[in-house]
Amino acid sequence: MTDVFAPAPPAVVRQNPIRSGEDWQAMREACERDAGAFHGDIAARTIHWFHPELNAWLSQGQDDSWSGWSGDAAKSTELSNWVPWQQALDESAAPFFRWFVGAKTNAAFNEVDRHVLSGYGEEAAFFYEGDRWDPASNKGRGGPVQHSRLSRRELLVQSVVAAQALTDLGLSCGDCIAINMPNILEQIIWTEAAKRIGVIYTPVFGGFSDKTLSDRIENAGARVVITADGASRNAEVAGFKEIYTDPALDRYISVATALKILAEAPIGSNGDSETKSMILEHVRENLGGEITLTRAEIMREVGQVLARANLGTTQTS
Prior knowledge:
- Helices cover 43% and strands 21% of the residues.
- By secondary structure, it is α+β, with helices and mostly antiparallel strands.
């Protein structure tokens, strides 16, 4: 079983700001008066923000000064007066609100990097324990057959490597990937990698069918799917990539793609436009509510239209 690891105490001890009903009421009233200022103060002190001119990541301290690290050499940086955003809360298009307009931050830096830079690199970020149990381990008290520990530093390094792999595949900020993986540490690593380079990710539950996975990929516009060979379920190894991911990518195409292919294909008697229009209308009517389709489903609908067209010709001749 994984050893117990006691994290180092924080340099600054924080306490709950709400210690009474009066505290709660005071904070609520402050938020109602100026939500931007209220949440902006919290965000400034709990999140590190990127300063483009200094190439530094900064957070506001208890004395209202800004401190953090320079991106050039990971050295400490301090700043006396700075506001990361032009506007804390933009309500001009309510109910569509925009928070911290003009500010820049990064989830991976805040979740991983800054803890390593603060000296907590050896602290455990995650423990993993498989579902297979060995009753003889741990001096007879039992324990998982598979167990491992991922430190914050290891998570940083491995997520950087994964982020570089995504970059090498041509992905950049704003692109999307699908993560179809079991509950293993690699799932966290690829998630942090996506956050690091600004790639949108959609996690897809591993128990979904290949059809559902295909729909999720199409809906999200995912360019890459991250998956695994297998997963441990109920102490047995279950296939993953070959059973779910590969069929989702190989067997299905989007409705839009199907209609485009049909529109360009020479269908019907000498490719006449009337039969083709009938086919396209029929497919839209019967399959338009789907997201992705198998080729067999498409050809079934095409066959129905062609059968009716041939039957009509026979009856009128």
